[in-house]
Amino acid sequence: MAGPNGCHNSDGASVFHNAQTGLATIELKESDEDGVILYETRATRRYIAAKQLMNWDAYATKIVYEAVVKPKYGWPHNMAEVARLLELLDKKLDAYGTLTLADLFHIPIAPRMAGGGIDIMTRKPNVAKWYKELITRPSWLAYSDGVKTTTSY
């Protein structure tokens, strides 16, 4: 049953209007492949962002460490492990395409991969388009060469 300012839609969603903020909250029962059920749009967005970041970070940071950091310091590195991780990450990137707030978490690692000669961000058209949109953002361009001074911001 929806509250006094809400209504139910035929798809099971409830829409509530907040008189103080003027915003609507949409509560929609959603379930993912892990069986997690979320009822509120903000919680759903946070969960999806965290899951996307976890899927990215678990592979990308290991790839950069093995393929970029270790060689830089002359440490032994395992390119077979890099190839394995790239294959797994490549499958995760199939879902990428539309830039979202969660994608900003990719900025610290993705350019380091490219700098290390890893082409995973450019080998598929949808990922390449998404990545180009990400790294051409004015906020990233202002930072990409490092922070020179905070007074110019």
UniProtKB/TrEMBL annotation:
<protein>
    <recommendedName>
        <fullName>Glutathione S-transferase</fullName>
    </recommendedName>
</protein>
<dbReference type="InterPro" id="IPR036282">
    <property type="entry name" value="Glutathione-S-Trfase_C_sf"/>
</dbReference>
